[in-house]
Amino acid sequence: MSTDTPPPVQSNKLVEVVSGITVRLAGDSGDGMQLLGTQLTNTSALAGNDVATFPDFPAEIRAPRGTRAGVSGFQVQFAAHEVHTPGDTLDALVAMNPAALVTNLSDLRPGGLLIVDEDSFEAKDLKLANLSTNPLEEPWTENYRLAKVPMTKLTRTAVAELGLSMKEADRCRNFFAMGMVYWLYGRDMDATMRFIKAKFSRLPEVQEANERALKAGWAFGETTELLGTSYQVEKAELPPGKYRNIMGNQALAWGLMTAANLSKKELFYGSYPITPASDILHELCKFKNYGVCTVQAEDEIAAVCAAIGAAYGGSMAVTTSSGPGIALKAEAMGLAVMIELPLLVINVQRGGPSTGLPTKTEQADLLQMLHGRNGEAPIPVLAAQSPGDCFDTAIEAWRIATQFMVPVVILSDGYIANGAEPWRVPDIAAMDPISIEHPTEFNHGDEFWPYARDRNLARPWAIPGTPNLMHRVGGLEKQDGTGNVSYDPDNHEKMVKTRAQKVANIARVIPPQKVNGPESGELLVLSWGGTYGACHTAVTKAMDAGLSVAHCHLRHMNPFPANLGEILSRYEQVLVPELNMGQLRMLIRDRFLVDAIGYNKVQGKPFSVSELLDKICEMAATESNKLCESKAG
Amino acid sequence: MSSELPVLKASDFASDQDIRWCPGCGDYSILAQMKKMLPDLGLPQEQIVFISGIGCSSRFPYYMNTYGMHSIHGRAPAFATGLRVTRPDLKVFVITGDGDSLSIGGNHFIHMLRRNVDVTMVLFNNRIYGLTKGQYSPTSPEGQVTKSTPMGSVDHPLNPISVALGAEAGFIARSVDSNIKHLAATLYRAAQHRGTSLVEVYQNCNVFNDGAFSYAQDKATRADTTLELEHGKPMIFGKNRDKGVRLNGLRPEVVDLSTGISHDDLLFHDEQADTALVHILAKMRHPEMPEPIGVFRDVEKGIFEDQVRGQLNTAVEKKGAGDLVKLFASGETWDVE
Ligand SMILES: Cc1ncc(C[n+]2csc(CCOP(=O)(O)OP(=O)(O)O)c2C)c(N)n1
Ligand code: SF4
After folding, report:
1. What does the DSSP assignment read for B129-168?
2. Coil, strand, or helix at residue A552?
3. DSSP secondary structure code for residue B161 in this structure
4. For residue A503, what pLDDT is reported?
5. pTM
6. Domains plus CATH for chain B?
7. Per-residue pLDDT tens digits for A578-589
8. Helices (H), A23-96
9. Pocket flag, ligand 2, residue B22 (CB < 6 Å)
10. How far apart are CA B276 and CA B280, in angstroms?
11. In testing the pocket of ligand 2, which one of B19, B21, B136 has its CB within 8 Å of the most ligand atoms?
């Protein structure tokens, strides 16, 4: 790959070496900001930086142009060290119009670089953004390094010879902006050139125009004084291996395919579109030649039911959704509990309740997944912590589902789903196979008992087509062993307890919970799911500042790891940061009688490192408060 | 292959479970005819799966010595779809009631039919909710007094055949629980059809809706109140086969054959006919008209799971079998030493 080759044109300007950069690209939702951000992410990862991203877009596909509601943003942090979040405050903000400027400016650090397209600050643009005066002419601009670039005009000039319409020419503006950003951070344009070539292969003029715009942006940075210095971010030290960028939903899809492969199963995927889970469906649909069978059902209920039908037939069955769709699946999930079949149910959480904030992130479906069914219907729940981690979570979930014959829930969220990070390509040959046995013989004298149990309390997965093992499953309570319908009160209680014990037994096979930091101390930060990056970074900073803090991040939400209670007892205080009103905290208090303190945010936004750090300092810094202020901030 | 199989009897399809329907319920007859018909399909028990929803009728799978799933209310078509897509080697039956398939499961009902999943669906229509003890159902006639409609139902009833036609179902039939020969023959034909086949069966719930279909059930009246559809034959009915159905414009009318009207003037049944004609048949209701029983429509069309699996095969032919190692190494990658 070309990652080691320098950019095509070597800059003659001053280059400042920095350890990391956080930049946000913001514009109208039609401006191609997500594309720009994805390209910058890929290119930065190819340059060997560690990267983390945060795409943020409106729920409306085409919100009114130029308005505040229509602003789409993409934030990326790339660094010469490991990063786990897309960054708190921005080193640079690219704002394509006034609406993007006013809605994003507060995140730019004082002295940060602000690049705007000055051509889109005309009176009509200001009006769309609900502004009475031009913000670029106000005194606040002195707090930042403002670069007013006539991007629209420059782009039009760059593509003038190609005979495109004005509208088509203006569409290349994002590539001009990209060129400037690439110059600014010494990024190689090769990968993006390849992208343009592939994407517009059928439209040669458009391809040419975008290439020209990209190069013109780069040349603009190099030739004018407007952007000043450029920056260099060295490669990050990551564990050796082959890397690629991966997004959360993509990693889930690939993890599911890998799990199917490891268990020699065909993957059946039943789903109904919903933000932010749909991309898993889009991804899996591409892989029919891998034996991935996808069905877009008529609704979420049909999707999960079709998956259960496939599981009964012996396939690896998966269904995905987000909170509202999971609510619809609840009854069928209860059936899966009763008929004791392996099934994966993935919830990519978004802001709720009801339709809530469909494109924003939240962690508020934990209790829904744990308890949102009628009757005593325990289901194991796993939570992924980052885009790349989705891959491993999918495989582990399927391992558990088949070993214990249970439906298993995977929790992800909008932040993980759409975020990207470098991912070390795993060696499939070195992964443990997932062995599954389908019985072919009687298991009880000269009878087959569909609810006979092994030492995990799992029942046999006999599949239709097997001679002599005919049996019936269903939602009515079954007599243990024979599987016959039974209303016997004692049997029901026994079955309720058996199903619960089966889930509890999973704690025997999951690895003991790890803690990052001191074995005991003043404060333990206990987190789960997509807040991993922010919590990890904040705790690491606090530890560096000398605070007595440790971090424990949960993947297994049900059952909890066997040693969790013991870990909690070693710290004076427990802080549980969550993007909900305190769901894990409630479970922890209930299960372990620990007076855990919540730190809760429900704004549709992920935690920033600094707000967590403030909270940690407040709780853990007895006499080290000053230390905290000076070092951690 | 079937020649090597032992010849199965109806009793081979009976499970060892006690049957718990009310004495006199029409469900018994449907169960009996199903068991009697199944050996003719030449399939071993292990290749057959019965999937049901919830309702009295949906207890059916427990009584069959085959594979089975008693699922959740209204969703049996979805379970069957998932099973068929991954296991096209299995013969799948869906057992459902009028409440199960037309109320809570209406959505899945039409979608299975329009997708044409290769499933035989038997809809037990008793025009009442049996299991929940007698509330009106989507097929209950207007004005019906039930536990939940003390002043009479104000809903316009659904006609399952019309709904199925609307969903462009390939095979649609109707039979009656007590007309056992007709029922067995109709079930057999439905099971032979490739694609979704729907059989609506008039089923007597003698506890909550006794006699709802007595006109079609009673030996004394049924020849005059029902019309046995036969492909390619004129529509003749009546105890003495002295009545026929002909078209007057777009309206069907009953004519007296003793007045010299010839068979050629009558409607001829065509199972492959344009749906407009079948709609006319679907709309024929007692007492104005004889109610057609038998096969309304039998046309072949693309089968959902064949097409889904066909795409999997085409993808392999075009791109080769998937290789995860190659996939992971595709696109932009870089090495860290
Ligand atoms: C989700 C859900 N809602 C309601 C019920 C209650 N319920 C069970 S069967 C039934 C109606 C059954 O009527 P039908 O399908 O006509 O079957 P029948 O009992 O008459 O054979 C209802 C409402 C249920 N089991 N599940
Ligand atoms: S309630 Fe009606 S439908 Fe149900 S078993 Fe009794 S008679 Fe049959």
Report:
1. BTTTTSB--TTSPTT--BTTBTT---SPPP-HHHHHHHTT
2. strand
3. H
4. 98
5. 0.94
6. 10-227+290-305 (3.40.50.970)
7. 999 999 999 999
8. 33-46
9. yes
10. 7
11. B21
